[in-house]
Write a structure and sequence with these properties.
With 103 residues, the chain is of the alpha+beta class. The protein contains 4 helices and 2 strands.
Length: 103
């Protein structure tokens, strides 16, 4: 008889970047001179502007200091379990944005 093996969620590869993101944001906040309230207001304004209501990846194309376009990469959650596909998806979006800048 085959014995069932229970896998641990903690032994699997993850794309959880929360810890690194928090460290980076804390460093940026301490260096920018804005209060936390000002930063939260700015982040909420960006979320409203780009139509996001959860953790998202948004590629914003800027040329000559002006926004040319933006794309909310909604499939990141669908692809989070496949690092290779996720990298390809994000890479393609960034390449497309760079193409718009270079046109």
């Amino acid at each position: 008889m085959t014995q069932a093996v229970q896998l641990s969620l903690f032994d699997q590869p993850t794309l959880n970047i929360t810890r690194d993101l928090k460290i980076s944001m804390n460093e940026a906040v301490s260096e920018c001179g804005l209060s936390r309230e000002q930063i939260v207001d700015a982040m909420n304004n960006l979320a409203d502007r780009y139509g996001v209501d959860t953790v998202s990846v948004v590629v914003v194309t800027v040329a000559d200091g002006k926004e040319v376009s933006h794309e909310n990469l909604e499939r990141v959650w669908e692809l989070k379990g496949d690092a290779s596909e996720l990298r390809n998806y994000v890479t393609q979006a960034v390449r497309a944005a760079l193409t718009k800048v270079n046109e």
